[in-house]
Design brief:
The protein is mostly helical and 137 residues long. It has one domain. 89% of the residues lie in helices and 0% in strands. The longest helix has 101 residues. The radius of gyration is 51 Å and the shape is rod-shaped. The N and C termini lie far apart (152 Å).
Length: 137
């Protein structure tokens, strides 16, 4: 024994009950007769099964997490794509609106120009008429 153990503990360990060979064999036969070894194997198997189940559950959870991550990534990508599409649609709408506005402006300008031209023509005609009337007098 190690020297740093207390004396009482060392003496208790030294005076522990020791099993002889015949007692060990008798104890083993008792376990076998009462089917305790099979229970031990059963519990060991159960423990192994539980461990395997836990491992499977962990693997399943890991797979589920991966699937969830993949789904989240896919959802994020879809959302990004949708956002991009919305942005593109907005841009297209804006562009269309701008084009429409430009067209309207152009039409308005053309109309104004036409009106101005008409007014000019009318003025010219009036002036011509006035000039002609004065000239005829």
């Amino acid at each position: 024994m190690m020297s740093f153990f207390p004396v009482k503990v060392r003496s208790a360990w030294t005076r522990r009950p020791k099993m002889k060979t015949q007692q060990v064999l008798r104890f083993r036969s008792t376990l076998t007769s009462r089917n305790i070894t099979s229970e031990y194997h059963y519990y060991y198997y159960y423990y192994y099964y539980y461990y395997y189940y836990y491992y499977y559950y962990y693997y399943y959870y890991h797979y589920y997490y991966y699937y969830y991550y993949y789904y989240y990534y896919y959802y994020y990508y879809y959302y990004y794509y949708y956002y991009y599409y919305y942005y593109y649609y907005y841009y297209y709408h804006y562009y269309y609106y701008y084009y429409y506005y430009y067209y309207y402006y152009y039409y308005y300008y053309y109309y104004y120009y036409y009106y101005y031209y008409y007014y000019y023509y009318y003025y010219y005609y009036y002036y011509y008429y006035y000039y002609y009337s004065n000239f005829s007098i």
